[in-house]
Design goal:
- The structure is a single chain.
- This protein is of the alpha+beta class.
- The protein has three domains: 277 residues, no CATH class; 100 residues, no CATH class; 59 residues, Arc Repressor Mutant, subunit A, CATH 1.10.10.410.
- 41% of the residues lie in helices and 19% in strands.
- A nine-stranded mixed β-sheet has the order 2-6-7-10-1-11-12-13-14. A three-stranded antiparallel β-sheet has the order 5-4-15, with no helix packed on it. Strands 3-16 form a two-stranded antiparallel ribbon.
- The longest helix is centred in the middle third of the chain and has 20 residues.
- It starts with a strand and ends with a helix.
Length: 462
């Protein structure tokens, strides 16, 4: 039986400074310039707590339905890797910030074991190869001390697909809370724990959701093959090599006692009052599930359409700007279909494009007046996403309104495709789709598909 658990490390980006010092919370500066004695672990340096990080972590905990503790403290997690300058990481172990949460995905409920805070190590850069075969390794400590919130699940996942579904949901929650930037380097990293026959294997530092799914699928196959050969699966830590799409051994797995956790005596015990929790609860915005229900009721759009739009807070925000002035059904169709398809085609998010609410309003107005077709609307949005001007394109792509011109084009297409015409008469629906496609090709997508279909059907019936 496959058991999978995830440890999700979220870089808190809505705070100005690092976790335990005053350095700017920015990882894109020149290497090793955004550092100080504290985040470099210099002797005699003392950490201090960033209150804003705690508030953000509490917000995450509440959104994940966790029980937030009223008292907590930090510990030192000792390990001797080259990404930790002081050879220990300030983290939480004995008493985390929050525990026992629940996150619902489409297929099941996932239990959250704990949510805790810690500092990020430095960034390791392997030169001339991967982690195993690099010529040499460089370390950038700008990332050292960046605030992290770690979300640890119970081993409730049974498939890699469920793990990816969970990460999609978590990312949406975090963006709604405005506590992290999905486009920032190292914004969300995952350690995945997986067992197929008893012993647990950990896969460290996977950055992409798709890579998490692929790494888990590979590891399931690897472990099942070992079991078939009679080989023993041992507890170990592996890394994901996205170049070869394989996991590779890093080291034999440590146990918790190997980390030698001790209390961080340079930081005080922290008390979280109920009044503070109540205030933070008020800051949590309307989340995706609530938006879905509201969209269905307020705009009368389907649940599937509402889910597609509400999943992305930036897309939802633009939808709500546009739908005030347009037909909700058409707007929902454009956002959940054409716009999402355009973004996926370009592999970008809405906030990475030059698309504005005004652009979509202009396109929708032309679409509603049947001045352009849905396909032209899609092409226009794609051009805007690519940073191109669409004014001339839309002017040149006006819908063919002259029915005589359209009928002449359709007659030519039918004459060229007698076999497809006969197939339509024989009741083959794919032949009609072929003829539609040929007409749209001849008209450069400037014809209304419904009108084209009606004209074709009339001609074929004669």
């Amino acid at each position: 039986m496959v058991k999978i658990g995830l440890e999700v490390h979220v870089a808190i980006s809505n705070v100005k400074t690092k976790m335990f010092c005053g350095c700017v919370n920015n990882v894109v500066a020149e290497p090793n310039t955004n550092v100080c004695p504290t985040c470099m672990g210099m002797p005699g340096s003392k950490p201090r707590i960033n209150k804003a990080v705690i508030d953000s972590a509490i917000k995450i905990s509440i959104a994940l339905n966790c029980k937030v503790r009223n008292k907590m403290f930090f510990s030192r997690k000792s390990y001797f890797y080259n990404d930790m300058a002081k050879n220990f990481q300030i983290s939480q172990y004995e008493v985390p910030l929050a525990e026992n949460g629940i996150v619902e995905i489409d297929s099941k409920k996932i239990r959250i074991r704990r949510v805790h805070m810690e500092e990020d190590p430095g960034k390791i850069i392997h030169i001339g190869g991967g982690i195993i075969n690099a010529d040499y390794t460089l370390i950038d400590y700008n990332r050292s001390g960046v605030p992290l919130c770690e979300i640890v699940t119970q081993p409730d996942f049974e498939t890699p697909k469920q793990a990816r579904e969970f990460l999609d949901k978590i990312s949406s929650v975090l963006e709604y809370l405005e506590v992290y930037n999905a486009l920032r380097e190292g914004a969300l990293r995952v350690d995945a724990n997986i067992s197929t026959s008893g012993e647990r294997v950990e896969i460290k530092n996977i950055s992409g959701f798709r890579d998490v799914e692929k790494a888990l699928q590979y590891e399931i196959t690897r472990q099942e093959n070992m079991t078939r050969r009679g080989q023993q699966i041992i507890q170990e830590t592996r890394t994901w090599d996205s170049g070869s799409n394989t996991t590779k051994l890093l080291r034999k797995k440590e146990h918790e006692e190997d980390y030698g956790y001790i209390t961080e005596n340079d930081l005080p015990m922290i008390t979280i009052k109920q009044s503070r929790l109540d205030e933070i609860k008020k800051q949590i915005p309307e989340m995706a599930p609530e938006k879905v229900k509201r969209y269905q009721k307020q705009y009368r759009i389907s649940k599937e359409t509402a889910i597609s739009i509400a999943h992305d807070p930036f897309l939802a925000e633009m939808f709500e700007q546009v739908v005030k002035k347009t037909d909700p059904e058409i707007t929902g169709k454009i956002f959940a279909g054409v716009l999402l398809k355009t973004l996926n085609y370009n592999n970008i998010r809405i906030q990475q494009t030059n698309i504005r609410a005004e652009d979509i309003l202009d396109i929708l107005e032309k679409l509603e007046k049947k001045q352009i077709t849905e396909r032209v609307a899609e092409l226009a949005l794609r051009k805007i996403a690519e940073g191109k001007n669409t004014e001339k394109f839309l002017r040149d792509m006006d819908t063919i309104s002259d029915k005589k011109q359209l009928k002449d084009i359709i007659k030519i297409v039918l004459k060229k495709n007698i076999k497809a015409v006969n197939d339509v008469k024989s009741g083959k629906p794919e032949a009609m789709n072929f003829l539609l496609g040929q007409v749209m090709k001849e008209t450069k997508n400037r014809a209304d598909q419904k009108t084209v279909r009606e004209i074709i059907e009339k001609y074929i019936e004669k």
